[in-house]
Amino acid sequence: MSVSLEVCRERTDDTVPAGHWEDERTTAVVLAREDGAVIGSVVVLDLGADDPALRFAAVPEGAFEALVPMLREAAALVGAAGGTTLRWVAESDEMPPSVPEELGATEDGEVYRWWRLELSAAARTVEGGGAGPVEERPAGEDAVFRLGLADALFDVEIEEDTAVLVHDREEEHTPDELTALVGAVVRRVREAHPAVRAAEAYAAPDDDTLGAALTAVGFVPTDRRAVEYLLPLGG
Q1: What distance in Å separates the CA atoms of residue 226 and residue 109, rounded to the nearest whole number?
Q2: Cα-Cα-Cα-Cα dihedral of 201, 184, 187, 159, to 10°?
Q3: SS3 97
Q4: DSSP E strand stretches across 55-127
Q5: How far apart are CA 65 and CA 99, in angstroms?
Q6: Residues contacting 109, CB < 8 A, separation 6+
Q7: Are 31 and 40 a contacting pair, CB within 8 Å?
Q8: Using CA atoms, how far apart are residues 39 and 166, in angstroms rounded to an integer?
Q9: 159-194: pLDDT as tens digits
Q10: Cα 204 from Cα 226, distance rounded (Å)
């Protein structure tokens, strides 16, 4: 069996699987096929930046063996469009070290790291009335519930026996406020989803406030992280 590449430049192309053209900035999609079936893709985004080193980004998905040829094809598209660097973000369990090494790409810093809390009887959570301002909000797509405090919120998705906490906030909050919110989310998971064994959340490396809140509730950082990669083009 061999892998073949296909470059799609029109969102009207009905051979491209649904979802690849959802972002209006998409300028091309590179598909990897094996025996006619799609096994991987790289969506090329034109971010519109004036700096050619910042203008283009890629969103890779799919089989490890197809990542290198797909990203090379994406890099050629970006170079032809005037870009000088191809950038992409990938989690540590999605991008084998051999891929950036073979391409000549380098890490440009950690984007976020995953934290984990085992929901055992010994796990530490914040109890009591500290979560008074926390309120129920309409849940987002794929979420089983959403809790918010002012303009900070957590959507909770359940993946097998793990609750995934997806956060969003517009302004800075104190560690105590976010601790109250995270603590309320964990209590809701325990009460409403007793089969869940662990909770996971992510935080940027410079997000000291969220990191302090996660620590207060009992979360610990893991080795799983997301990194931005840079692939210089030409020269």
Answers
A1: 9
A2: -30
A3: coil
A4: 56-62, 85-91, 106-118
A5: 9
A6: 205, 227, 228
A7: yes
A8: 27
A9: 999 999 999 887 778 888 899 999 999 999 999 999
A10: 9
